[in-house]
């Protein structure tokens, strides 16, 4: 079993979460924190992949120019409407 050392503020936070009834014990608080970290890592990996895809599109000249924010907004709304159907 791994021992985790917390500073006073972290320990107080864990105790507050337990006293508020959000968690039954410190292990549950740590598990919730680890789950959030896993979720963040997953989202970060997805964002990095999308950034890489976008950069690849730019490198290959697959870009669209807009003369105004309104044009961009109109395109986004059209594509969103098409996605909904």
Write a structural description.
It comes from Rhizobium esperanzae. Pfam families: ParD_antitoxin (PF03693). This is Antitoxin ParD1/3/4. By secondary structure, the chain is an all-alpha fold. The protein has one domain (8-84). The protein has 3 helices and no strands. The mean pLDDT is 96.
Question: Averaged pLDDT, please?
Answer: 96
List how many beta strands DSSP finds: 0
Radius of gyration: 22 Å
Structural class determined from secondary elements = mainly alpha
Major sheet, described briefly?
none
Helix content: over 70%
Topology, please?
Blueprint: H1 8-19, H2 26-59, H3 69-84
Protein traits:
85 residues, mainly alpha, ParD_sf
Brief summary:
By secondary structure, this protein is mostly helical.
